[in-house]
Amino acid sequence: MPNKILVIGATGNVGGEVVQRLVEAGVAVRALVRNRAKTTSLTNPGVELFEGDLSKPDTLVPALAGIGTALLSSSPDPNQAKLQNNFIDAARRAKLGHLVQISAMGAALDSSVSFCRWHAETEQYLKHSGIPYTILQPNFFMQNMLSFAPTIAAEGKFYGSMKDGKASFVDIRDIAAVAAATLTGDGHAGKTYRITGPEVLSFADIAAKLSFALGKPVTYVDIPRTALVQAMTGSGLPDWQAEGIAGLYDLGAKGGFAEVTSVVKDVGGKQPISFDEFAKNFAPAFQVAKTAR
User: Fold this and answer.
1) Beta-carbon neighbour count of residue 223 at 10 Å?
2) Over the stretch 14-69, which tens digit does the pLDDT of each residue have?
3) Contact at 8 Å (CB) between 42 and 33?
4) Whether the Cβ atoms of residue 116 and residue 104 lie closer than 8 Å to each other
5) Which of the residues 31, 84, 243, 245 could staple to 10 if both were Cys, CB 3.0 to 4.6 A apart?
6) What is the pTM of this model?
7) Can you say how many angstroms the Cα of residue 55 is from the centroid of all Cα atoms in its chain?
8) DSSP string spanning 206-266?
């Protein structure tokens, strides 16, 4: 049984799933959180909460005391590389035995997509750190479709700008399975794993699958990129985030996310979740329109 594992980003979608999977396997987990008193999503007794912040490097080395393996995951941010590199520096000083980074498919220093460049910057920094590492590059999350739930529930429509581009959407539960395996198993150091779902789908394909799962017509409406960015910023997203999402759709429209791999089965030890199964599991979330606040 491995020693306690430190999870950075434990309150996020992927990090939370990884924590749950580790705890179910009987692995002790330490979660780095900004404020223990405000953390309500990590109530399992198998999880130790440790206050720290990627923007405060002096809080990171203490979090690594007694830790041999860690997961590094955080939300997109213009300062993402700097923040994550702060942790890598701390991990190097603490002589961490293994660091698993949640990156993204398409990560490249010369990418046209800001999110992909930021992930690539951390990947490069980690590779040159001297820390044994594993890099996970998941494709689009199926759970990201939940952001379309309000318009699907109210109008039977969702909007994007990926044209007829296809992607191998992956369920975050499968990403967690791969992450848990690399955190607790041997033979993963120095590896980069691209994590995908079992099939490539366009947004029109997804609309058809949601129509079947929900028992009502769901339509994908492709709109111009500028209109999409305006809609996202109008709903409150910062410019950098709206542009990043639109950039992902641009790359997706060109086939940049259409690869299918066997990583979920080979590394995660399970059959990948299909979009049909995801839609069935989450159908209630698409059925009721939320009231605007």
Assistant:
1) 12
2) 999 999 999 999 999 999 998 877 777 777 777 999 999 999 999 999 999 999 99
3) yes
4) yes
5) 31
6) 0.95
7) 20
8) HHHHHHHHHTS--EEEE--HHHHHHHHHHTT--HHHHHHHHHHHHHHHTTTB----SHHHH
Per-residue 3-state assignment (H helix, E strand, C coil) for 174-192 = HHHHHHHHHHHCCCCCCEE
Considering just the CA atoms, what is the radius of gyration of the chain in Å? 19
Cα dihedral sign for 270, 72, 112, 206?
Answer: positive
Domains of the chain with CATH codes: 5-139+170-195 (3.40.50.720)
- Token pair recorded at residue 213: 């799962």
The C-alpha atoms of residue 130 and residue 184 are separated, in whole angstroms, by 20
List CB contacts of 135: < 8 A, sequence separation 6 or more.
Answer: 100, 101, 103, 123, 126, 191, 192, 193
Helix intervals (H) in the chain:
13-24, 60-63, 80-93, 114-127, 149-155, 172-184, 203-214, 225-234, 239-253, 263-266, 275-282
Mean pLDDT of the chain: 94
pLDDT at 2: 53
Asked whether 249 and 228 are in contact (CB, 8 A), the reply is yes
